[in-house]
Design a protein that fits this description.
Length: about 400
């Protein structure tokens, strides 16, 4: 009987060109090679052009004498300081306006965002008009509005507006008492830090107790008493070393005290109100994203509308609010570079002046890029950490 063996031919091995894995590796290597070649071409052309123009490269210029004054400085600076210190002054100014702007924009944004959901017709329409107006105006125009339309219209120093606590407001800025720290004032700072640490401990223990037994503790008022009471106690025990230098009104100007100049005020108010409009929409969307049944459940438990919003709705909405909120914080920080339009010496303005005097364009641009990138990455890192802390955890 003839053998009926079935001869099976081995399938021919696919060529390397048709192998998906080989193709993917080839294309990735090709892309990397093109990127490296592009970067090398840019760097090489830059070096050649700088050499042809007889412009020295490197960062040694940062140790040179600046030779220009800066109007607003949070640290000691004179025209004899170095270019590097001038850039640091601009960086600190940027961080200050970004920090206070983020806090103010967050507060206003949450208030307006909740107001847009109010059942009161007038409050709802006012908040809606606010959002639609500021969201649809370029931030530079908002800055000009505060600088030229509001602060420039204030009275002259001799006719300054009197405010509480010995403060004044006029065309040249906002004047308020300046603190003078005497011997032993460090105890006040120690008391403040101790109050903050104890307030955090109380809040942590109160949360554990509530999760275990359901019993609430007056965390807010206790924390407020600790944060305010301990520094006051330290102030008394150290012999009242803190005094204040109040501004005094003279014939043509005000003397003494501390002044916040109109350039800073314009930038701070513009960035705060502009960014708050976007934050308000984020907050409204986050609250809308919470299931309606949560509000109905709080009503069934007898909670008032304010308690339900604060204890149930907003904590759940935060998981929706925080990610886009981080983007608005980054936008506010980067929009602070528009300060150059009104003469506020932020990072862009001071580094631009250094660039004009030294001609080190590449180095100055790299410094600004690296600093803004570092600020953005740090802000993103903090917001990601906060988002992880606020995430809902199932039991």
């Amino acid at each position: 009987m003839a053998s009926q063996e079935v001869l099976r031919e081995e399938p021919s091995r696919a060529s390397l060109i048709n192998d998906p894995k080989v193709r993917s590796i080839f294309y990735q290597c090709l892309v990397v090679a093109l990127l490296v070649s592009g970067v090398w071409w840019i760097v090489h052309n830059t070096i050649v052009n700088l050499t042809n123009l007889h412009i020295a490269s490197g960062f040694a210029f940062l140790r040179g004498r600046a030779g220009f004054d800066i109007s607003d400085t949070a640290i000691a600076y004179t025209s004899d300081s170095t270019y590097g210190r001038a850039i640091i002054v601009g960086l600190i100014n940027t961080l200050i306006v970004a920090f206070v702007g983020i806090i103010t924009a967050t507060i206003i944004g949450f208030i307006v965002g909740i107001g847009r959901l109010s059942k009161n017709w007038l409050i709802q329409k006012i908040c809606t008009v606010y959002v639609e107006v500021f969201r649809n105006i370029p931030p530079l125009l908002v800055i000009f509005f505060w600088y030229s339309g509001v602060l420039a219209a204030l009275p002259a120093p001799r006719d300054s507006i009197n405010l509480p606590f010995g403060s004044f407001l006029n065309q040249r800025g906002f004047y308020f008492p300046r603190a003078i720290w005497g011997d032993g004032s460090w105890l006040i700072l120690v008391g403040l830090l101790a109050g903050i640490a104890m307030a955090w401990f109380v809040a942590h223990k109160a949360h554990q107790r509530q999760m275990a037994t359901g019993q609430q503790f007056p965390v807010f008022w206790t924390s407020l008493a600790l944060i305010i009471g301990l520094p006051l106690l330290a102030y008394a025990l150290s012999g009242f070393p803190l005094t204040f230098d109040f501004p005094k009104q003279s014939t043509f100007n005000l003397t003494g005290g501390f002044v916040v100049k109109p350039e800073f005020l314009s930038l701070y108010l513009a960035l705060s109100f502009y960014t708050a409009a976007f934050i308000a929409e984020i907050v409204r969307a986050g609250i809308r994203g919470v299931a309606r049944g949560q509000s109905e459940a709080t009503a069934a438990l007898g909670l008032r509308a304010g308690q339900a919003l604060r204890l149930v709705v907003v904590p759940q909405a935060m998981r929706i609010v925080i990610p886009p909120l981080a983007s608005q914080y980054l936008n506010l920080t980067k929009n602070s570079s528009l300060a150059i339009a009104i003469g506020y010496p932020d990072l862009t303005a001071t580094t631009g002046t250094v660039l004009n005097q030294t001609g080190q364009a590449v180095e100055c641009v790299v410094i600004m890029m690296v600093i803004y990138l570092a600020i953005s990455l740090l802000t993103s890192l903090l917001m990601n950490w906060f988002n992880a802390k606020m995430a809902l955890v199932e039991r």
